[in-house]
Amino acid sequence: MIWVVAGTRDARRLIEGIWRAGLPVIASVVSEYGAQLLQEAFSGKVPVHQGAMDPPAMRSFVREKGIIAVIDATHPFARVVSENLLKLAAGEGVAYLRYERPSVDTTDFPNLIAVRNWEEALDALGEAEEGETVFLATGSRALPQVVPPLLQKKLRPIARVLPDLDSLRQCLDLGLQADQIIAMQGPFSEEMNRAMFAQTKARWLVTKESGAVGGADAKLRAAAGMGLKTILLCRPALPYPCATTDFDEAVAWAGERLQWSDKERLFPNQNMKLEHETSTSEI
Predict the structure, then answer these.
(1) Where are the alpha helices (DSSP H) in the chain?
(2) What does the buried/exposed string (b/e) look like for 181-219 if buried means 16 or more CB atoms within 10 Å of the residue's CB?
(3) For the chain, which ranges sit under pLDDT 50?
(4) Fewer Cβ atoms within 10 A, N terminus or C terminus of the chain?
(5) CA pair distance 271, 165, nearest whole angstrom
(6) What is the dihedral of CA 107, 112, 116, 122, to 10 degrees?
(7) Which DSSP letter does residue 126 get?
């Protein structure tokens, strides 16, 4: 079984490619909403596990489902999950591939400050003047780190989050008012971003380098066109042993892993040869 750890829109396309190639695939997502999208997309023909898994749960999952390869197609900023999957693959002898959406070229965007973490982002916002609006297109998980310091500095944060109860409750618990919350499903076009920035009178944009699929380029273009100062959180750098940004390569990799698994099962005495083949055929 090929395990695709999903968490993005393009992960669904990857799962579809593996499924249409006739390969046995199982997907996992954290949120109920994500599971619903996958179940609807494949009409229940692809098994979906819903819920977060810690390392022990991941090990049990691999052993129970007969996983021989894992494709990490989580969000570019799901660092902890990727680190856990790398350790799992090494410990369980499971092949690992990181599928990551291409990055956005940011060289032509003025007023852009690239930062490595939220501490640097908050330092950059030290230039903001009291009362200015900071548009947070960061996802809900970052809000507890970002919103309280902004409120302390008497800035006006606007949080754009998914339209689910947990995200809305988190915003309210952090002290945001109704006019400081935009609950909508993205990604958004450049025109929609412009409209939201104008409506909220935003002077700053804080966002992540989540790639064009995640709408990063549309946000950056809209902000640049309106003269907003942009703080861009760069992707975490991890030592992926095998990675690709190409769907076809990821599907081919999955097929190769199943072929090698079958050879090892039928011809166990040729393991040394197979290990050599694997090492010279990685993407």
Answers:
(1) 9-20, 32-42, 55-65, 79-92, 118-124, 143-152, 165-173, 190-200, 216-225, 247-266, 271-280
(2) bbeeebbbebebbbebbeebebbbbbbbbbbebbbbbbb
(3) 263-283
(4) C
(5) 51
(6) 180
(7) G
pLDDT (tens digit per residue) in 71-125: 999 988 888 999 999 999 999 999 999 998 878 777 778 889 999 999 999 999 9
Cβ within 8 Å of residue 48, ≥6 positions away:
26, 27, 28, 29, 35, 38, 39
Task: Decide if 241 contacts 169 (C-beta within 8 A).
Answer: no
For residue 98, give the 3-state DSSP assignment: strand
Q: How far apart are CA 73 and CA 13, in angstroms?
A: 11
* Residue 106: per-residue pLDDT: 79
Structure tokens that stand for 122 in this block: 């908050």
Nearest alpha-carbon partner for 96 in 236, 240, 239: 240
The pLDDT value given to residue 70? 97
What CA–CA distance (Å, rounded) separates 163 from 279?
45
Q: What is the pTM (predicted TM-score) of this model?
A: 0.77
pLDDT at 155: 97
Q: Which domains does the chain have, with CATH numbers?
A: 2-102+238-280 (3.40.50.720), 112-233 (3.40.50.620)
Q: Please, are residues 27 and 263 in contact by the beta-carbon 8 Å criterion?
A: no
pLDDT the model gives residue 271? 41
Q: Are 239 and 93 in contact (CB under 8 A)?
A: no
